[in-house]
Amino acid sequence: MDGLPFILARAGDDTVRLIKSGRGRRGVYFTAREQMSRQIIQAMVRHCDGDGRLASRVLGVSYSTVKAFNRGADRVPAAR
User: Fold this and answer.
1) Distance of CA 4 to CAs 26, 28, 35, 61, Å?
2) CB 68 within 8 A of CB 37
3) Angle at the Cα of 78 (from 53 to 40), degrees rounded to 5?
4) Are the beta carbons of 47 and 78 closer than 8 angstroms?
5) Which of 36, 15, 37, 11 shows the shortest CA–CA distance to 24?
6) What is the distance between the alpha carbons of residues 61 and 22, in angstroms, rounded to a whole number?
7) Overall average pLDDT of the 1-21 stretch
């Protein structure tokens, strides 16, 4: 995994297995983009004290996008 960018090196185990197998339906780029988007959205929701609507306005994405990417997120206490 030495040749992969830093963010892919920190990807979840499922993503790493998908990349190594070469069987990703959408390819490495789309998988990495989805993982990064999820991390950014979840971080912004935490920063906004769990307010998904505020996070969507700050990020310039729809509230439904924030809900979709934040679904199943670990419920981490908001940043203070």
Assistant:
1) 17, 10, 14, 28
2) no
3) 60
4) yes
5) 15
6) 31
7) 57
Amino acid at 40: I
Residue 52, pLDDT > 50, answer yes
Secondary structure percentages of the chain, helix, strand, coil, to 5: 60, 0, 40
d(CA 70, CA 37): 10
Distance spanning both ends of the chain, measured CA to CA? 35
Whether 61 and 53 have beta carbons less than 8 Å apart is answered as: no
Q: What pLDDT digit, counting tens, does each position of 13-40 carry?
A: 666 666 666 555 667 777 778 888 888 9
Count of residues for the chain? 80
Instruction: State how far the alpha carbon of 24 is from the alpha carbons of 2, 28, 44, 48, 59, in Å.
Output: 20, 7, 28, 33, 28
Write down the pTM of the prediction: 0.60
